[in-house]
Amino acid sequence: MSELILKTAAELADSLAAGETTSVELTQVHLDRIAAVDGDVHAFLHIDAEGALSQAAASDARRANGDALHALDGVPIAVKDVLTTIGLPTTCGSKMLEGWVPPYDATVVKKIKDAGLPILGKTNMDEFAMGSSTEHSAYGPTKNPWKLDRIPGGSGGGSAAAVAAFEAPLALGTDTGGSIRQPGAVTGTVGVKPTYGSVSRYGLVALANSLDQVGPVTRTVLDSALLHELIGGHDPLDSTSTTTPVTGLVDAARAGATGDLKGVKVGVIKELAGEGWAPDVMRKFNESVDILTKLGADVVEVSTPSFQHAMAAYYLILPAECSSNLAKFDAMRYGLRVTPDGDPSAEDVMKASRDAGFGDEVKRRIILGTYALSSGYYDAYYGQAQKIRTLIIEDFKKAFEQVDVLVSPTSPSTAFPLGAKLDDPLAMYMQDLATIPANLAGTPGISIPAGVSDVDGLPVGVQLLAPVLEDARLYRVGAALEGAIGPVLSIDKLEVAR
Amino acid sequence: MTAVPDSLGLVGFDEVLERYDPAFGLEVHVELNTNTKMFCGCPATFGGEPNSQVCPTCLGLPGSMPVVNAKAVESAIRIGLALNGSIAEWCRFARKNYFYPDMPKNFQTSQYDEPIVYDGYLDVEVEGEIFRVDIERAHMEEDTGKTTHIGGATGRIHGADYSLVDYNRAGIPLIEIVTRPILGTGAKAPLVAKAYVAALREILLGLGVSDVRMDQGSMRCDVNLSLSPKGSGTLGTRTETKNVNSLRSVERAVRFEMSRHAGILDAGEAIFQETRHFHEDTGTTSAGRAKSDADDYRYFPEPDLVPVAPSREWVEELRASLPERTADKRARLQVEWGYSELEMRDVWAAGALSLIEATVAEGTSPQAARKWWMAELSRSANDRGVELAEVGVTPAQVAEVQKLVDGGSLTDKLARQVFEGLLAGEGTVAEIIDARGLAVVSDDGALGSAVDEAIAAQPAVAEKIRGGNQAAAGALIGAVMKATGGKADAKRVRELILEKLA
Amino acid sequence: MPEITRDEVAHLADLARIDLSDAELDHLAPQLQVILESVASIQGLAGDDVPATSHPLPMTNVFREDVVTPSLTPEQALSGAPAVEEQRFSVPRILGDEQ
């Protein structure tokens, strides 16, 4: 194993700039690491060694000419398999899209290509991003590198595990109800859900359009800031893309690293604690709150009463939107086609293909969403859920009148054993209790490692939330907290070690 | 589901009206002639090779997203204003969810309970009587792909072995204009329905927002019809006849469904709410899809698009730039052209107003333009059951022919033959004149001998002319024209006769 | 408490064009009932005075100029198709009428 893989993306960028290494070398050591451990971790669905090395060679050539495109030019990255990539399969973890190769790049993929980051491959995920454990991938689960019989979180367990196992210094994830932050929490990595609309969704295969957001998955707050600034910005191909830029993230991360939080008001969310929250998680969380106080922050408790209804609203809005989004997978234009015996009609082929191509969780949500949108139920369910959404936005507004950022545990427990909640959808859904409100309100959130549990030695995450477009606050407070807590993830703590 | 008789015999039209009041409504889909599609930058033009005008968005590829075409919104607002409608201050797109292979996403991005245009009306005239057609709404949506059915006997959907889909048309902007039920038209129901569609087409042509070619599908009508017991003031169960694609068919579809409904109601049966297909060849309808659960379209606001909130300034700007209102224009042109009330009404009813206007704009006199459009060309359109605008002759061609008549190189009789050629698709005006040998003979040599022959054949007439009776020349002119097969320049013939007999 | 019966799940699956087997229906229907009971807790919580939020950020009027941009090539468009004929997507015979 090369020690290079232990460096952060910012350090790798500096090494490249200083001529101490090359992109080809960096890319190769990560490909070697993938070859060594991904058989155990299964973070990747597709590995593009050839493509990554050729992008790396091009990066080195640019750098030799003094034409580096970006600070991260040449630093390899992994991409969640829900983002379209020209020439690379994009399956969304589903049999439905096995072998599908998109003819276009997602805007964020285009941005990382344009900045010169070699793409190592596509990472595993719960099918169509539905799940909190990556066990709903049609291609088998990803394992938590800390303990291989544990889940890596979901839906973006692949991206989080790849970064946690040092298979990639950076990854892209997507977060609809916590799919970046919850895997971050249970793998000891940093994950950010940016303000809704501040990173383009064009080319992100939609789960729930009004909730989805692309974001960075990294090992440090500064690395997230670097990647976040790279992928953000207005995109005319995404009608919901904000025109107000989210800026100053890297500066905020560097400022936070000084450890001074004097004058910063932090609100502890009263509703995201208590019953259902593991005591070891709460102990680590409370330590983080104490640290914030020590760093000079003014910590108060705030109440957001509507948050208790967030999960119900979410599990009506999301299934409704995804039932419609996933209708396009009908075996007519692309994807799996199953032709039943006899003389089947288009309708028969659609039904058979959708039954064969979708897994249980996808079917559950499609049916629930179809129900919620049906005439006669719309007002009681979908309409009501959208009103709850308004109440949650109002709760956030009131809270942010009192404090600059909100804080809560990211996930109610540490990584649970594979299979533990597979047949209990509600228990699985509870994983996202703390992360869902930000998606409903469009506000940004970050999960950073708070330490390891005193019970099972597995990582615990702490979540910070900021007002819409104030993503920089997450980086300032997050970097300060990260510095005070000290490193949580290290290769020696992993079951997949050197 | 119990078997419902499709028809229990047709009741004569007059008899229907003795017992029932008809109510009808129209849903008209208009394809806009924007450069690009509703939600992506693919060309919205016809005729590209299959699947060459598609992108991730209009092909519904995973991950793609829509962006609204500003010009389509502008066209929708202009249509709304021209139809005396209100323009929503805030409205959204919604998804209409249903599965069909010609729909790339298996939902149509449309508008549901928040249309951009609402509460409009259009006054239409039938036989001198004005009927107000209330327009409930007009909304924006996207077209579907085009399906070709392969195998089977008929090339139709039923009995086909499989189908081929071309998505070039998918995503072309559509405006759907929906009327309220139109009551109280009685025997004139079929004509009012037709007149409404004709008036709507005139307005859309004037706005320049669509080609409005019913024969090419850029304007498509669905006709709703119901009957209620005479004088009851209620609304009966309706049927929806789809894709009625000519003005004449609109009239026929209303008429046929009235007769069919009456037959069923007379037998004491109930009308089955369903969609029906119109058959151009027979003028009849047949049962289509029954209204069912499948019509639970599960509408919800399109989360990938943000609301459309046209500023009042924009709306007023568009209002100020609207073309002249049709009624005003009709009145103005009647005066300008010197037509009688009756002439103008016929012109209007024939859908010839824009055509004559365009012909006059090419330099033809209003009288000559009316003559050709209302006689030769209208007759041909009627015979073939097509709209005048789609008869196959353009205003420019009419003007070209009339210019030749005015210049003396065609007679009216020869001009008629040119139109025959144009209608038969024989080529350009010049090609037809050439191929059919229709040029007027004005060459003195050729005419001279024909004149000599005519004089020789009718010495008594010649004597009268020599005696100063010029009016008698007519008989000789007629003989020369006959001898030359109508190709002689009558004016020159007259001059030659008078010269020779001076 | 709302109820989502096995028959209703079968009907919804039909609307959603998923050919669920009997075994799947047996398995999914009770799970859906549990989920529905949980989410049904929000019924009636917010009154008429609370507006619905369909977009998290209040934006309006995002338009595109009516200018042609490059399309895919037919080869790209058809590259993922299960069956192609005459540069068109080949689909099995269609039962229903067009909408």
UniProtKB/TrEMBL annotation, chain A:
GO MF entry, a single one: ATP binding
Reactions performed catalytically: L-glutamyl-tRNA(Gln) + L-glutamine + ATP + H2O = L-glutaminyl-tRNA(Gln) + L-glutamate + ADP + phosphate + H(+)
The Amidase domain, residue ranges: 25-474
Keywords: ATP-binding, Ligase, Nucleotide-binding, Protein biosynthesis, Transferase
GO biological process, one term: translation
Active site (UniProt): 80, 155, 179
Source domain of life: Bacteria
EC numbers on record: 6.3.5.7
SUPFAM superfamilies: Amidase signature (AS) enzymes (SSF75304)
Function: Allows the formation of correctly charged Gln-tRNA(Gln) through the transamidation of misacylated Glu-tRNA(Gln) in organisms which lack glutaminyl-tRNA synthetase. The reaction takes place in the presence of glutamine and ATP through an activated gamma-phospho-Glu-tRNA(Gln).
Family stated for the protein in its record: Belongs to the amidase family. GatA subfamily.
NCBIfam families found in the cross-reference section: gatA (TIGR00132)
Assembly description: Heterotrimer of A, B and C subunits.
Name used for this protein in its record: Glutamyl-tRNA(Gln) amidotransferase subunit A
Native source species: Nocardioides albus
Taxonomic path: Bacteria, Bacillati, Actinomycetota, Actinomycetes, Propionibacteriales
Gene designation: gatA
UniProtKB/TrEMBL annotation, chain B:
Catalytic activity: L-glutamyl-tRNA(Gln) + L-glutamine + ATP + H2O = L-glutaminyl-tRNA(Gln) + L-glutamate + ADP + phosphate + H(+); L-aspartyl-tRNA(Asn) + L-glutamine + ATP + H2O = L-asparaginyl-tRNA(Asn) + L-glutamate + ADP + phosphate + 2 H(+)
SUPFAM superfamilies: GatB/YqeY motif, Glutamine synthetase/guanido kinase
UniProt cross-references to InterPro entries, sorted A to Z: Asn/Gln-tRNA_amidoTrfase_suB/E (IPR017959), Asn/Gln-tRNA_Trfase_suB/E_cat (IPR006075), Asn/Gln_amidotransferase (IPR018027), Asn/Gln_tRNA_amidoTrase-B-like (IPR003789), GatB (IPR004413), GatB_Yqey_C_2 (IPR023168), Gln-tRNA_amidoTrfase_suB_CS (IPR017958), Gln_synth/guanido_kin_cat_dom (IPR014746)
Enzyme Commission numbers on file: 6.3.5.-
BP GO annotations: glutaminyl-tRNAGln biosynthesis via transamidation; translation
Superkingdom of source: Bacteria
Keywords: ATP-binding, Ligase, Nucleotide-binding, Protein biosynthesis, Transferase
Enzyme class: ligase
A molecular function GO annotation: glutaminyl-tRNA synthase (glutamine-hydrolyzing) activity
Family matches, as Pfam families: GatB_N, GatB_Yqey
Every Asn/Gln amidotransferase domain range: 354-501
Family, similarity comment: Belongs to the GatB/GatE family. GatB subfamily.
Stated role: Allows the formation of correctly charged Asn-tRNA(Asn) or Gln-tRNA(Gln) through the transamidation of misacylated Asp-tRNA(Asn) or Glu-tRNA(Gln) in organisms which lack either or both of asparaginyl-tRNA or glutaminyl-tRNA synthetases. The reaction takes place in the presence of glutamine and ATP through an activated phospho-Asp-tRNA(Asn) or phospho-Glu-tRNA(Gln).
Assembly with partners or alone: Heterotrimer of A, B and C subunits.
NCBIfam families listed in its UniProt record: gatB, PRK05477.1-2, PRK05477.1-3, PRK05477.1-4
Name this polypeptide is given: Aspartyl/glutamyl-tRNA(Asn/Gln) amidotransferase subunit B
Organism: Nocardioides albus
UniProtKB/TrEMBL annotation, chain C:
Gene name for this UniProt entry: gatC
The UniProt record lists the keyword Nuclease: no
GO MF entry, a single one: transferase activity
Keywords: ATP-binding, Ligase, Nucleotide-binding, Protein biosynthesis, Transferase
SUPFAM superfamilies to which the protein is assigned, alphabetical: Glu-tRNAGln amidotransferase C subunit
Family: Belongs to the GatC family.
Xref: NCBIfam families: gatC
Subunit structure, as described in the record: Heterotrimer of A, B and C subunits.
A Pfam family that the UniProt record links to this protein: GatC
Function: Allows the formation of correctly charged Asn-tRNA(Asn) or Gln-tRNA(Gln) through the transamidation of misacylated Asp-tRNA(Asn) or Glu-tRNA(Gln) in organisms which lack either or both of asparaginyl-tRNA or glutaminyl-tRNA synthetases. The reaction takes place in the presence of glutamine and ATP through an activated phospho-Asp-tRNA(Asn) or phospho-Glu-tRNA(Gln).
Catalytic activity: L-glutamyl-tRNA(Gln) + L-glutamine + ATP + H2O = L-glutaminyl-tRNA(Gln) + L-glutamate + ADP + phosphate + H(+); L-aspartyl-tRNA(Asn) + L-glutamine + ATP + H2O = L-asparaginyl-tRNA(Asn) + L-glutamate + ADP + phosphate + 2 H(+)
BP GO annotations: glutaminyl-tRNAGln biosynthesis via transamidation; regulation of translational fidelity; translation
EC number(s) reported in the record: 6.3.5.-
Claim: ATP-binding is one of the keywords in the record: yes
Protein name: Aspartyl/glutamyl-tRNA(Asn/Gln) amidotransferase subunit C
Entry-linked InterPro entries: Asp/Glu-ADT_sf_sub_c, GatC
